[in-house]
Hints:
Largest sheet: none
Strand content: under 5%
Amino acid sequence: xxxxxxxxxxxxxxxxxxxxxxxxxxxxxxxxxxxxxxxxxxxxxxxxxxxxxxxxxx
Length: 58
């Protein structure tokens, strides 16, 4: 039973890390270039709204 829980925990941890890294790559290479056309103030506002959906710290 302990081995199953360890495997399950490790799998969930790896999936969470892959999801987090993937979202950071998406943010850097898709969202950031798209926001460059809006200008600094609008881009900062849109980015702030989007980041609140993904993080409890911002």
